[in-house]
Amino acid sequence: MPRLFHINIVIGRTIERKTAAKSQSIVLYTVLYFIFTTILNVLTNGINSGFIQLLTTLFTTYLLVGMIYVILFEWKDW
After folding, report:
1. Could you read off the pLDDT of 7-18 as tens digits, one per residue?
2. How far is CA 75 from CA 26, 42, 46, 57, 68, in A?
């Protein structure tokens, strides 16, 4: 599983180094996820291609599942 969520683990470790507490890391990671997915959805909203919408949905779902993986399995001791 760690190889599948490599991008999310790198993001999680970077956030963990920048913040002092695990609770701050979780909140920051969640806020960054919502900001990034909102920007991504706004940028691709005007494109009327089903394929682009599918890619956007798959990528945001990948980020969400990866975020949950990092919080539950990488940051076990919070």
Report:
1. 999 999 999 899
2. 9, 31, 37, 26, 10
Structure-block tokens of residue 34: 């919502």
The stretch 1-24 carries a mean pLDDT of 89
CA distance 61 to 66: 8
Please report the sign of the dihedral spanned by the C-alpha atoms of residue 59, residue 8, residue 19, residue 24. Answer: positive
Rounded to two decimals, the pTM is 0.85
Please determine, for residue 78, whether its predicted confidence score (pLDDT) is greater than 90.
no
φ/ψ of 19, rounded to 5, equals -110, 165
Do residues 25 and 8 touch, judged by C-beta distance below 8 A?
no
Rounded distance between C-alpha atoms, residue 73 and residue 77, angstroms: 9
